[in-house]
Amino acid sequence: MSALSKILGTAKHIRQKPAYSLGQNIAYMISLAWKQRCSVIFLALTMSVVAILLSLTQLFIVPYILGFVEANVSVAELTTIILLFTGALILLSAAQSYFSSCSQFGRIEVRLIIGSMIQNKALTMSYPDIENQRVRKKMLMYGKEASNRRQEIDRQHHTIPNQRNQRPKDKHRGNVYNLLFRHGKVR
């Protein structure tokens, strides 16, 4: 074994190239959202614009007020500037909350569609693939990713594999029962 192969590792440890690029995945998600609920895309863009405007308003409020104080403007003008910035902050915060609540149902619907696609893939898989622990772990991980529950994803990566190794395997009930009656959820 040469020194270069020791440094780089064996061929097993070389990272495999993903089947789809990041751009292809983003394009697929946008096309799926466009087909199912196109308002999600427009609401996401609107939320981005409102968030940028809110951040800019928060960024410029102090320098503008200090500039007017240094320019020795009257108290009435200073109060007007403060009230304008305060009004802008209130309106932008309310708009951000409103658009966030409006887009929530569309995002949930798109996530449910992705989850049903993952479930459909699991139900149409061959039986040896269902038994493969690596495939099951990936299916569970992608299902959790689609539902966007970060804490559950982290917990699942650390606790479920450990519990699965400690529990005796029940060949007659476990995998088929979970797949058919518990919709692919691991006990």
What does this molecule look like?
It is a single chain. This protein is mainly alpha-helical. It is built from 8 helices and no strands. The longest helix is centred in the middle third of the chain and has 49 residues, at 75-123. The protein starts with a helix and ends in a 6-residue tail after the last helix.
Compact description:
The chain is mainly alpha-helical and 187 residues long.
What is the succession of H and E elements? HHHHHHHH
Helix content: over 70%
What would you report as the Rg, rounded to the nearest angstrom? Answer: 26 Å
Low-confidence stretches: 167-173
Topology of helices and strands:
Blueprint: H1 3-8, H2 22-36, H3 39-70, H4 75-123, H5 127-131, H6 133-147, H7 150-166, H8 174-181
Question: Which key features would you list for this structure?
Answer:
mainly alpha, 187 residues, elongated, 8 helices
